[in-house]
Amino acid sequence: MTFTDHCSRIPWHGAGGALAHLVQTGFGGFYDGMAHWAITPEDVLVVLALTLLSALGGKDRVRRLVFTLPAAWFAGGLMALVFPTLLPPMVLTLASFGLVGLLVALNRHLPDAVFVLLVLVTAVIHGAGNGGAMREAGLGWLGLAGACVAVFVVASVLPALLVRIEKPAGRIAMRVGGSWIAAAALLMIGWWFRGG
Amino acid sequence: MLFTSHFSLGTGVPALALASAGHSGAAGLLAHAAHPETADGLISGLAHPVSGADHVLAMIAVGLWGAQLGKPAVWVLPVAFPIAMAFGGMMGLLGIPMPGVEIGIAASAIVLGIMVLAAARPPLWVAGIIVGLFALFHGHAHGTELPEGANGTLYSIGFVVATGLLHAVGIAIGLIHRWDWGKPTLRGAGAFVAAGGAFFLYQALA
Amino acid sequence: MRWMLILACLISLVADAHELRPGYLEITEVDPGVAEVTWKLPVVGTAREVPKVMFDADTQELTPPNERLTGDSRVFEWKIERTGGLDGATVRIEAPDGRFRDALASIHRLDGRHTTGRITPERPTLVIDPAPGWTRLAATYLMLGIEHILLGFDHLLFVLGLLLIVDGTRMLVKTITAFTLAHSLSLAIATFRIVEVPEGPLNACIALSILFLGPEIVRKWRGGESFTRRHPWVVAFAFGLLHGIGFASGLAVTGLPHASIPLALLWFNLGVEAGQLAFVFIVLAMQRSWKSISLRWPLALRRAPGYAIGILGAFWTIDRLVATFLI
Prior knowledge:
A: disordered N terminus; B: 7 helices
């Protein structure tokens, strides 16, 4: 999802209409897709939130995330590219990563199946929003592929680094991070409702 | 800014497209203008919690009290506070009224300051409710103050991060609690916060 | 082996990734205030609408644009005149949908001054600065270098092949350094035209170098030994010389400022190295991460990069040989 897309989907308070801002690296669709992902706050935050959740859950969880997250993201994105009407409502996108953030803050141990389902659902929702944005920006599947590669790289490296943190202070810092993500999601939902 | 189109490629026929060229030129300018604006959202979100002294004092007091209470309050409070605050902010944005917000905010620094001054040790859930209530008030009042034209998403993130960092400052100061000389110093800091809160309350009423 | 077929299908999608090039805009002042403009665009698909070059309102065109097709490029040439001279003139690239690949602008002035600049969709306007600093040249060629390696799928695939063959950090550093030294050396040699290699056979040889790595990777899986396994840095150096000449042809296509070739070359090379190092670090970080969480991909996925290198290398070799000698 891009700022362009956001501006059209979230009517900003006081923003006075949509201001298009396409991110173009000049390096072609694949890298533009990566850049789109990297500057879309809720798409970055959901990857961060899932990263924290898996890292708190241990290595088994991280292993599941590495493949499931980008694959489901790509599936959701393709769905949105093929069926343009299938875009998830913005509030669902915001609520899904807020929920993941909240689960990180609570640090409750989830059953394995629930964790995988959670990753699948949030990744498909965000992937679909991402795919819709790619279609609008004219980047198509190449842009989506770029975004998915970016997600794959981050999901491979970041959780594997964080899962090694065993000190209580480090784990609490991760939970605080989850709490911040959940808080940001709540505020964004507020803005979304006020705009709509 | 007017641009003369030199030719339309593909046909190779020169064409003058002043109007359309001028139009797309303006669109280009708009696209550029959008950039600093989005950055504004983040910066104003980061700056907002720091710009109000009453808010700063209350946030630091949360950190101080958490550090004074020790585990598990020292981390429960910073984890719970942002969510409660954002919930208050969301209520404010949805237009759900909250009675006594002004008094609640003014009182928060005083009450939290007194708690630190008295080195009060209520049960964790009582401390949680006190802090959570103030968090709701602060979120309700401050979370909705988006500057004109700024980006709500980035503002939200900036607001949450700045608040969290203020807690961290409070906790870092509160760590002096582990030394003998630190305990009275910390209580002194509580007195300072309470006095500051009283001053702001007086200013608000006067 | 069903997935090998899938891989082979993917090839057709990515095989021409390397052929993407930025546009090239050359403005040569021939009389005070009068300039010849050349706008060169790589032919991409069947696109009719291509990005347009627009000057500010003080500029008139003296001749209508003349279009011709040279090999794989569309070239437009025309003459302009600007009242008050070229200083401060504004050049803007506009695409019908606001999207285009970046373009390199090269401006030669009557008094021998030379300016370069990169025009991107983000900054579609370039002002012809009376006294441009060296920083613009540096930034332009740094970005060109990064772009060249990031879109040079074949070069990245070769580096990936090296990473798959080499064991141990020491040997890895040695091998990547050898590759870097070799292609920097040959990039400079080819840019100064000390050696000239025809492009067709060169591209075929680069493809062959990738194909060469495929069997070596398979040999490693089977626990076999070979010269490449023992001394990968020698292979990296030898083939690095080839890849460097390839970089040089990419640089030559985009054009070089005659007055400051060494500086442009330096920054282009730095850009290539930055992009390549970023790629190496990302691949290594991912490998290490997977290892640290004891993630083992299914056999088919673990073998996929090796097969992709072999298949793509073979495909490119045949494709480029056919293009060079049969068409």
